[in-house]
Amino acid sequence: GAVVSQHPSWVICKSGTSVKIECRSLDFQATTMFWYRQFPKQSLMLMATSNEGSKATYEQGVEKDKFLINHASLTLSTLTVTSAHPEDSSFYICSATSGYNEQFFGPGTRLTVL
Amino acid sequence: KQEVTQIPAALSVPEGENLVLNCSFTDSAIYNLQWFRQDPGKGLTSLLLIQSSQREQTSGRLNASLDKSSGRSTLYIAASQPGDSATYLCAVLGSSNTGKLIFGQGTTLQVKP
Known about the structure:
The structure holds two protein chains of two kinds. Chain A is built from no helices and eleven strands. By secondary structure, chain A is mainly β. In chain B, a hairpin with a 5-residue loop joins β4 and β5. The mean pLDDT of chain B is 94.
């Protein structure tokens, strides 16, 4: 199957700093990437849908100025958590698709904000 | 609004048992349904994807069925092994072509040696 990578796999930062997470499709061109977050013992919650070359579409309740998404190429999308706070600590997972049939998921990034 | 429910939330079985995980969804207008496995602290591994026109898919000891009209899917695991211990998530892709997957809360499976 198609491979999606995320970097970093984990990050610890101080409150108030910004953190950037990368999502890459390694062997296919991803027209659309999705960003999810997952709190402990909970399921995945979709944060936003990102199409290459256009602005991301955010789900209700997700602050677009807090979670900046850039999808500058067909193989890379980035999520920047700005002015991170402890409540932003979570597991962030991206997925990528070249159509809408099947999404391929990255391994996730564990963010801990102190 | 599509809602996906998984029952049970947790399951513990002895090694070797056959077991069934359940997934139900409220809107039958789906494009496909997918079962995933997630190990603690890890990402998702796709197990089986069933298109809306299909009734079932099989991979090794796994068999997933889909009854779209009743809004149900089951994941059957034969001859369970301790290595099957993980959280199993089902997700549906709506036919509205937004590309959004709606996930269930998952079933956490423990297979005891």
